[in-house]
Design brief:
This protein is mainly alpha-helical and 343 residues long. α3 runs antiparallel to α4.
């Protein structure tokens, strides 16, 4: 492994982390703008043109806020919770194919930090670790509302991870691979998986809402019952880490949805663009197309948040255990029958 390759990958990882942070920052701005539009308000418009500097102002405010800690014997865990939440939100981006490749100074640069055969298992492993950030933060806060929120979040995320994993099994039966890069390559043109697995996509989308604690699945943070949820006792940048982690998770989950079901960086006519305009132009367009798909899903997250009311907790569990899990099992059976019949 040459030093140029290590430098290339290191730069790419730093760029991806930076892009994830910027997307998380401006998702907070977009959230307020979308909410304002849906509620016939103006939204942030003071910090910069159209409020574009509002995320920077919010970051400076969080840095400047007073740090306080609850009277807890678990001070170490109190600091570890938001660190785990933020770290797991960023780590998932390592295996995502952000594009095909670029030709730079005679080198072929693959637009993926690392391509492993079991990338999808890596994604699910990191997602399952993310719950520890919430559980540890809620437990270490020494607050009954925070603890109740952590328990809610844990049971919710474990429940919906089962349905999410089962929905992916049907997709794996079709694609025959756990590599996100191979899945993207198989969807060249308009051969998108969503046309073959619409039920699996719907289940995965619903579970993604639950995994990111977004409305109508934000039972862990509902202020009407639990004040602020698991981060009630947090202030300054520790609270900022939890808030950033939510938006980073929303960005990453939107990316995974685009890669698994909507072709990732592929678009109609990509092969023609490669032949006539060159590899770099075609693949830069592919990156732009991927981010358009991601922004579409992020807008959908926000649209749902400001449209649909929050579930009751029994409704949330009923949907997860009695509807989504049986539906995903039926989807696996139907997929198996179709594969045997048509292949």
């Amino acid at each position: 492994m040459d030093s140029a390759f290590i430098i290339e990958k290191s730069i790419f990882i730093v760029v991806i982390f930076a892009v994830t942070m910027v997307m998380a920052m401006y998702s907070t701005w977009a959230e307020r703008k979308v909410a304002a539009y849906l509620q016939d308000r103006v939204g942030p418009n003071r910090a910069g043109w159209g409020g574009l500097l509002q995320p920077l102002a919010d970051g400076m405010k969080l840095f400047a806020k007073e740090e306080f800690e609850p009277n807890t014997p678990n001070k170490f865990l109190f600091y570890v919770g938001p660190a785990i939440a933020m770290s797991t939100a960023l780590m998932t981006s390592a295996v995502i194919p952000w594009g095909d490749k670029l030709e730079i100074f005679g080198r072929t640069v693959i637009l993926q930090a690392t391509d492993i055969d079991n990338a999808l298992l890596y994604v699910f492993a990191i997602i399952s670790i993310g719950i520890y950030g919430i559980m540890i933060g809620g437990w270490a806060s020494n607050n009954k509302f925070s603890l109740m929120s952590a328990v809610r979040a844990g049971s919710q995320m474990v429940s919906y991870e089962i349905a999410m994993g089962l929905s992916i099994i049907a997709l794996l039966m079709m694609t025959g691979t756990l590599s996100l890069r191979e899945m993207s390559m198989q969807q060249a043109g308009m051969n998108w998986n969503v046309f073959y697995q619409p039920v699996g996509f719907l289940i995965f989308l619903i579970c993604a809402f639950a995994e990111t604690n977004r409305t109508p699945f934000d039972l862990a943070e509902c202020e009407s019952e639990l004040i602020g949820g698991y981060h009630t006792e947090y202030s300054s940048m520790k609270m900022g880490f939890y808030l950033f982690a939510e938006y980073a998770n929303m960005f990453i989950s939107s990316t995974i949805l685009a890669v698994l079901y909507f072709g990732g960086y592929n678009y109609p006519g990509m092969q023609w663009m490669t032949e006539h305009a060159g590899v770099n132009i075609a693949n830069i367009l592919g990156i732009i197309v991927l981010f358009i798909k991601i922004c579409g899903f992020i807008f959908f997250y926000m649209w749902v948040r400001w449209t649909i009311p929050r579930f009751r907790y029994d409704q949330l569990m009923h949907l997860g255990w009695k509807i989504l899990i049986p539906l995903s099992i039926i989807n696996i059976v139907i997929t198996g029958i179709c594969l045997l019949a048509f292949n």
